[in-house]
Amino acid sequence: MSDFEHRSVETETRRATPGRPWTPQEEPRQDALRRYLGAVAAAASRRSTGQESAPASGTGSTEGPVTASPGPAAPGPAVLHVRDVMRVPAASVPGDMPFSEVARTLAREQVGSVPVVDADDHVIGVVSESDLLAKAAVMAEPHRHGSVGRMWQHRLYEKSHGDTAATLMTFPPVTVHPTARVSDAAWTAAHARLKRLPVTDHRGRLVGVVSRRDLLRALIRDDAEIRAEAESLVGRYLPDPHAVAVSVENGTVTMTGRADKALVADVLAAVRDIDDVLDVVDATEAF
């Protein structure tokens, strides 16, 4: 990534940092977030330089879904597609489902949003906890006056008077195709600020759902994979590959042992270029 992309990732991470003291689990979560944002930024960089073809844009019509269309498959087994990580079957609700039943569905499925489908299973929108919260607020106080009624979320306030999934939902829906690259789906989710994306076939019918967590797991390499690649670099640069030990935790590579510092510097530079490496700690000692 470029320096600008690194700064963008760090800025987004700081925005996500909680104002309260971190729990022991919070730092690994923030590290994972940095790696996710880094992968998205790298995907965006490849798209802008032509190394990956960008997905075809939708028609722009408000009648149909906004879908990340599949691009031509890149060579090599490392390319993951949405179909490899999506979850099936996907929970959905019909457009005529009442507000209260939609709320029960979200609670039962333990999700924050759910696709709304028509009689032929075409995705026509997405209804979320935010939509239901606005509806609940209107039910509690139907007549809002003053600045609240003039907020820029005027459309949200107006549609919250609806009583069914179709009248409460957000549309057009942002969806992805099963053959879309995971990196493209991650970019779509990040750009739209969505936690879950419905997966639809070429006719717009619901076939699955992919979450930001699913994309995160697919984009971020396992620490064991990073360690194996780092150890191979140690063997390439150092006469004695056993002189330096490599450990990896949450994307941070630590190197310990005794070796020629000049050679170690070359290894460190190479390890920093490994995908998904957040930091490299040099704990080696000179001969």
Automatic annotation (TrEMBL):
| Gene3D superfamilies the record matches | CBS-domain
Keyword set includes DNA repair: no
Q: Which domain of life is it from?
A: Bacteria
Query: Which residues fall in a compositionally biased region of kind Polar residues?
Result: 46-64
Q: Report the InterPro entries cross-referenced here.
A: CBS_dom (IPR000644), CBS_dom_sf (IPR046342), Diverse_CBS-Domain (IPR051257)
Residue stretches making up the CBS domain: 86-148, 169-225
Q: Does the keyword Membrane apply?
A: no
Name of protein = CBS domain-containing protein
Source organism (scientific name): Streptomyces toyocaensis
* Organism ancestry: Bacteria, Bacillati, Actinomycetota, Actinomycetes, Kitasatosporales
